Amino acid sequence: MKYTISLCIFMCLLSISHAELITNGHFTSNANGWTWVNVDSAGGWRSSGGYPGGGFIINDGGALGSDPTLYQSISGLVIGATYTISGNYILAHGTPVSNAFGVQIDGNLWQYYVDGSWRSFSQTFVATSTTGTLYLTGERNGTDTDPMVDNISLVMTTPVPEPSSILLSILGLCFYFRMRRNK
Ligand SMILES: [Ca+2]
Ligand SMILES: [Ca+2]
Which of 29, 68, 80, 137 has the most neighbouring CB atoms within 10 Å? Predict the structure, then answer.
């Protein structure tokens, strides 16, 4: 019984920790689930050219004052848990340059060199809020270098047991031992 309870809690945490929090990160048939600003007709969702299949080109006319941005609201984050954000990117237009592509979430910013090879990024962060917004930007730092992105993923990699689950398991164990004593 004790082991069954522990196993249930473990399985529960395991299933929570691997749930994908990004909607439509593979851009297979459209860009549903995503919103974008400062993206012109040379950018946007494409049915091919991704890694593989569909992808999204983060591009506008290279205005210095604004960066084309693709974003998505994230909910269901657990404060204190560690998450991994990952994806692929490649140069769609412009010259290969450092820090042209940015990934931003929960106060973190990572910037990447963009060139003609598909590259992957993978970063971890500890959530400080239950909701957030993931921003993927091109043309950063005054460049006119436009990335195409694909396979965007956000998963919890180190869960934090919630006080309520700990309390429930303690109550469950107390109940179990009380029942056993009364037999
Ligand atoms: Ca794809
Ligand atoms: Ca551009």
Answer: 68
Which residue ranges of the chain lie beneath pLDDT 50? Answer: none
Distance CA 6, CA 173 (A): 10
Among the bound ligands, the one closest to the CA of 53: 1
- Which protein residues have a CB closer than 5 Å to ligand 2 (ion)? 59, 62, 144, 146
Digit-coded pLDDT (tens) for 61-110: 988 889 999 999 999 999 999 999 999 999 999 999 999 999 999 999 99
Which domains does the chain show, CATH number per domain?
A: 21-182 (2.60.120.260)
Q: Which residues keep their CB under 5 angstroms from ion ligand 1? A: 26-27, 50, 53-54, 150
Q: How far is CA 95 from the centre of its chain?
A: 27
Q: Residue 82: its pLDDT value, please? A: 96
Ligand nearest to the CA of 27: 1
pTM: 0.81
